[in-house]
Design goal:
Blueprint (H helix, E strand, L loop, with lengths): L1 H16 L6 E16 L5 E14 L4 E12 L1 E6 L1 E13 L4 E23 L6 E25 L4 E21 L3 E5 L9 E13 L3 E10 L7 E6 L4 E6 L6 E13 L1
Antiparallel strand pairs: 1-5, 1-14, 2-3, 4-6, 5-6, 6-7, 7-8, 8-9, 8-10, 10-11, 11-14, 12-13
Length: 264
């Protein structure tokens, strides 16, 4: 929350410090998007909790339950579905001439994906196993800076926008719904996910009445964001530990965003 508040402060400062000039435009916009991610099968697991394997040792006077192992459970028949997210930001465009401009954006974005499937685990109360439905939504909350080249058409009533967008993930979290529980947990930057991303951006923007904007933008991430991790029981320390991969596995973002805005 503190990072989002800082972002809003920077955005207000950027808009407030801009001086209107004949060769520049500035304003703000907000919108929503549909987000996709292609997720590697190595990430098809339930990381909301660790499944602990145990064995019972029956003694004359008592019964001892001893941990023998620990791991994440796989999500079977996993399907990756899109999510929706909102975004808002401010922009400043420097007009080189009547048909070409360079635009700088500062924005807050949401990306992510949903994974659905089933999970099977051993039944602790009786022999056999239990299968439960699994539905988890992962969201990345980014602060992004975009650099766009704008080609103006139709007397500046329409523009074609192309550029790049570096982003910093202020927060990543997953909400998990299962037949047996609902959990919400945050991911750790640098361990569960890569905090920095780089995207290529393309879209169009229409201007109505000289001030009101409506746009469509496609964003394609170039970097994989998620790290594979595993849980295990360390007998020497008698505790559950976690192991993270050295590099992210396939997990690139992509989205289509529709925006409305105002140009001063």
């Amino acid at each position: 929350m503190k990072k989002i508040t800082l972002f809003l402060g920077l955005l207000l400062m950027m808009i407030g410090n801009i001086r209107a000039q004949e060769n520049s435009n500035y304003g703000f916009y907000l919108g929503c998007g549909i987000n996709w991610m292609k997720i590697d099968s190595r990430l098809h697991y339930d990381d909301s909790e660790v499944y602990v394997e145990t064995e019972k040792i029956v003694l004359p006077d008592t019964t001892i339950v001893r941990i023998t192992g620990a791991h994440y459970l796989d999500v079977d028949d996993a399907k990756i579905n899109p999510t929706t997210g909102f975004m808002f930001g401010g922009f400043y465009e420097l007009l080189v001439n009547e048909t070409f401009g360079i635009q700088f954006d500062l924005m807050y974005n949401q990306y992510g994906y949903k994974i659905k499937g089933t999970v099977e685990r051993e039944n602790s109360d009786q022999p056999g196993s239990v299968v439960y439905d699994y539905d988890a939504t992962t969201k990345f909350k980014d602060i992004s800076f975009a650099l766009l080249a704008k080609i103006h058409l139709l007397d500046q009533h329409l523009s074609v926008d192309l550029g790049v967008q570096p982003s910093y993930c202020a927060r990543a979290e997953r909400e998990t719904h299962k037949s047996i529980s609902v959990k919400n947990h945050s991911y750790s930057s640098g361990k569960d996910y890569r905090p920095f991303n780089l995207s290529v951006v393309g879209g169009v923007t229409g201007c109505l009445g000289g001030h009101f904007l409506i746009g469509a933008r496609y964003n394609l991430g170039l970097l994989d964001l998620l790290y594979q991790k595993s849980a295990y029981y360390n007998k020497d320390d008698d505790e559950i530990k976690y192991l993270y991969s050295n590099s992210p596995v396939e997990s690139k973002t992509s989205s289509v965003q529709i925006t409305v805005g105002y140009k001063f």
